[in-house]
Design brief:
The chain is an alpha/beta fold. Helices cover about 25% and strands about 30% of the residues. A hairpin with a 3-residue loop joins strand 2 and strand 3. The longest helix has 15 residues. The chain is globular, with a radius of gyration of 21 Å. The structure holds zinc ion (2 copies). One zinc ion binds next to helix 1.
Length: about 280
Amino acid sequence: MASYNLAHIKIDDLEIIGYSVAGEETVVAMPQLDVCFDIGKAPNQIIPINNVLLTHGHMDHAAGIAYYLSHRNFCGQSPGTILAPENLLKPIREIIDAWSRLDGNKLPANLVGVKPGDEYQIKPNLFTRVFPTKHSKGSVGYSVIEKRKKIKPEYAELTGPQIVELKKQGIEIDYPLEIPIATYLGDTQYVDFSQLKYIVESKILIAECTFYQTEHTNRAEAGRHMHINEFAALIEKLQNEHIVITHTTQRTPMRDIRRILKDTLPTEKYDKIVLLMANRRR
Ligand SMILES: [Zn+2]
Ligand SMILES: [Zn+2]
C-alpha cells in the first residue's frame, strides 16, 4: 500500500516516481530501469526496486536506508543493493548494524562503495556510471546507460548466412554502442557537465534547481546548490530531450518558480522542462 503520494511523470515508456523538496525529502525512482536515485524516507512504492543509487549522506536523501533494507527482508525480497560514495560506507554500515541490534534482526544488505569513473552493472544490458558533483565530501551523480551492439557499416548489407560465416571465422562484425538513458545529478553546485559526453547526450536529465529568486543567490552558494541562473548556464550546453527539475525550495511558491523558469530559459529549453513536484500546493 502507498504510504503517501508521490509525483508521477511518464516519458515514453519510462516512469519517474518520486518526491523532492529541498531540505525535506528527495527520492526519485525509475522502476523500468530498476534504480532509485536517493532514498528519502523510503516510501513503500520504491521498496521493490533492487538498486538504490545514493548521491550523498544528507538526511533528507538518505534517511530511509535501514527501513528500505528491513522492509525488503520482511517482504521476502532479496537484499537491496545500495551504491554510495565510498567515504560513506563505514557510517552506513554502522547505522545498519545499530538498527540490526535495535530491531533484533540482522538487516541483509549489498553495499557497494563508488567513486567517480566507476561503473556498476544493473541488468545484462544496463549499467550506471558514476561522476563527481560539488556538494559534500565525496558526493556523486549517476548516469544509467544502455549497452547495445551495432553492426559495423561495412557489414550492414550482409545476409544472415554471410554473417554466420564471418562469426565462424572469428571476425568482429559489430561494435559496442552506449545509449545514455537518464542522468541524475543529485545535489550539486554548478559544474560544467558538458565535459562528459554521456551526460550531454543523456535522453533524460534529472537535475536539482533549488533557488529562483535573486535574493536567494547567497543561499544557493552557502548550501552548494544551484540557482536558476547557474541552471540556465548548465543546460545551455547540454542536449537532453527531457529535463526533470528536482529539489525545489519551499521558500518560493510553485507558481513563481514556473514563471521565473519561463522568463529565464529560452523557449526551446523551457519546453523540455518538467517539474517533479509540479502539483505541490504552494
Ligand atoms: Zn538535498
Ligand atoms: Zn544535500
